[in-house]
Every structure is written in C-alpha cells, then in structure tokens.
From TrEMBL:
It comes from Flavobacterium zubiriense. Pfam families: DHFR_1 (PF00186). Its EC number is 1.5.1.3. This is Dihydrofolate reductase. Keywords: NADP, One-carbon metabolism, Oxidoreductase. It is an enzyme of class 1 (oxidoreductase). Pathway: Cofactor biosynthesis; tetrahydrofolate biosynthesis; 5,6,7,8-tetrahydrofolate from 7,8-dihydrofolate: step 1/1.
Length: 166
C-alpha cells in the first residue's frame, strides 16, 4: 500500500524555502508513529531539509542528479523506481515534497493529511484531491493550544474503487 503523508494548509501550502511554515508537535508525533519501521519516499530537497536521516526508516530519495549519494539511503530517478524498491504487501509512505506528491498521487492508495486551518504564503503545495476519487474515512479536529498556534485536523482518505461503468 502506498500512503501519502503530509501536513498542508487550507490553501494546500506545504512550506516555503524548503521549510515548514508552522510548528505542530502533535503532527510530528503522528508522522513518527505512522512511518517508523517503514520505507519512506521523498525528493532530494526534502531529504536535505532534515538535519540527519530519520531513525528507524528506510529512506528512498528521488533525484535527477545521476551522481547523488546519501549514506544508507536508496537513490532512484523516478517515482516508479522508488515504489519498486518498497517491499510488496507492506505500507510505504510518500513524504514529499510538492513535486513528489504530484507524481505519487496516481500510485497512492491512501492519504494521511494534517490540515492546518490557516492559509500561508508558500512555494510548495499539496496536490488537489478530487473527492470523486477519494473517500474521507476519518477526520479528527484538534484545537490550537499553547504548543499549537493553529487549529488542525488529522484526515485519512482512501482511494475509491472504480466501478465497471466508471
């Protein structure tokens, strides 16, 4: 199963200058809980935004740079090759950035989305979800507090099965 996991604002903003534009500790905890012990697929810029590789995960980096190296990581040049590197029958996660999410959307079975209830100036955006293709199966609204400056919701979408007439 291929799952896209992201935090995006109401205007689909993901971040600016390769950084998140909000800080939501509970979103980080959820990300860690869901992705630990799994393969995670990301673009080179997303990987380079981390101070070090994320622990207890297999990193697959998509890049056009033929000579790119990152110790302990799998390097590929397409979303298709990244998916091929993931164990069959196990959940793998697409973790960004914006271009990678767009490429991965047709291959994805599930979306774990944290919606930040605010709009931000950004240079990277999450792709638009066509609700004809996706079913919202869970939504958990969280109110802002002393550690979270914005209201947010954890949402889970599952790709709808096509019927023969579609």
């Amino acid at each position: 199963m291929i799952t896209m996991i992201a935090a995006a604002a109401e205007n689909r903003a993901l971040g600016k200058d390769n950084q998140l534009v909000w800080h939501l500790p509970n979103d980080f905890k959820r990300f860690k809980n869901l992705t630990t012990a799994h393969h995670i697929i990301m673009g080179r810029k997303t990987f380079e935004s981390f101070p070090k590789p994320l622990p207890n995960r297999t990193h697959i980096i998509i890049t056009r740079q033929a000579d790119y190296q990152a110790e302990g990581c799998i390097i590929v040049d397409s979303i298709e090759k990244a998916i091929e590197k993931c164990p069959k029958g196990e959940e793998a996660f697409i973790i960004g950035g914006g271009e990678i999410y767009q490429l991965a959307l047709p291959f994805s079975d599930k979306i774990e989305l944290t919606v930040v209830h605010h709009s931000f100036e950004a240079d990277a955006f999450f792709p638009e979800i066509k609700l004809d293709d996706w079913e919202l199966v869970n939504s958990d609204f969280q109110t802002k507090d002393e550690k979270h400056l914005y209201d947010y919701s954890f949402e889970t979408y599952i790709r709808k099965q096509k019927t023969p007439q579609q």
